[in-house]
Amino acid sequence: MGPKWLQWTKALQSIAQNGLSFAQDPYDRERYTQLQRVAAEIMSAYSGTDFTQVLDLFQGQQGYATPKVEVRAAVFRNDEILMVLEREDDRWSLPGGWADVGQTPSEVAVRETLEESGYRTRAVRLLAVYDRDRQGHPPLPFHVYKIFLQCDLLDMNPMPNAECGDAAFFQEGKLPELCTTRVTQAEIARLFQHLHDPLLPADFD
What is the pLDDT of residue 163? Predict the structure, then answer.
């Protein structure tokens, strides 16, 4: 679930954001603005991030506060899973990223896999919908749902693509160093369980 201060910060920010989205009375708006500043102060104090940077991040969120959605593709080749190298930390993750407005989860998974690895795929099965805070990831300032989709390879060789970084297939017992901001070893282990038992229902929560 993450540290208590982060849970409190997320709760305060969501209350403030929702209040500022709907409140009409100027005094109510002033109170929600103050509440948002308190949330930013807590985040800044405990994370070591500049207060102004945190406040700008919170103020940039508009409308009713809801979880963000991240989509990851589980692409298997026999008993290996496709992974891509994240340039920001030289660690490995599953292809994927934030869901884009106007695209379905399967479209996001297929597009991200092509852009990040060069492999064309087809989404075939929902494997899991997880609350990120309950999966052992490093903390983020926002609440996130993670969707994992199994995708079948359409080609055995990747297509040339200027956006592609390093991509490779790994066995479960020989995983590279993971970018745990994006994927954990426990999540990958569960995805392999789904591969070996296609009758498993999709995980949630």
Answer: 61
Give the other-Cβ count within 10 Å of 156's Cβ.
7
Q: What is the CATH number of the domain that holds 142?
A: 3.90.79.10
Beta carbons within 8 Å of 32's beta carbon, 6+ residues apart: 15, 16, 19, 20, 23
Looking at the structure of the chain, the number of domains it has is 2
Whether residues 121 and 186 share a domain: the answer is yes
pLDDT band at 157 (very low <50, low <70, confident <90, very high): confident
Token pair 């066995």 in the structure block, residue: 171
Q: Is the pTM of this model over 0.90?
A: no
Q: How would DSSP label each residue in 38-95?
A: HHHHHHHHHH---HHHHHHHHHT--SS---EEEEEEEEEETTEEEEEEETTTTEEE-S
